[in-house]
Amino acid sequence: MSLVSALIYRRRSALVGRLVQEVLALYGVEVPAAVEIGPGLKVFHRGFGTVVHPFTTIGANVTIYNGVTLGRADPWVPQEASAMERIVIEDGVCLCAGAKVVCKQGVLTIGRGTVLGANAVLTTSTGPDEIWAGVPARRIGHRIPLSEAGATA
């Protein structure tokens, strides 16, 4: 587990939580204590420039590269008036460098095993094991689950 990943898990600690948040800020990482994170989070390149909205749930074994943003599409609207409810990142998702997930309204879900390409801007939910890229992001392929890849090899 990387140092940044370890710090992210310790950000909720009553004793050192505030100090951990400040150390993460030195790395350019903002992950509020309200963010729910499953086990096995991998953060590469120290997560430099990564920002996560407090109304986010991150599943197990998610990979996040540097410069990823998970947030609202309407930051000028007060949080109470925003149509955004939550961003859900399911298990095994890979968010490549510079990817942006921007929720306009309701719950935006990135399906299990989905890959969001570098610098993609996603504004809609995805299905499982899909590959998305571009601005705005669009589905460009389908990922073969490891269980099927091993069976065909």
UniProtKB/TrEMBL annotation:
Task: Write down the superkingdom of origin.
Answer: Bacteria
InterPro entries, per this entry? Trimer_LpxA-like_sf (IPR011004)
Q: What is this protein called?
A: Serine O-acetyltransferase
Which organism is this entry from? Answer: Kitasatospora nipponensis
List the top taxonomic levels of the source. Answer: Bacteria, Bacillati, Actinomycetota, Actinomycetes, Kitasatosporales
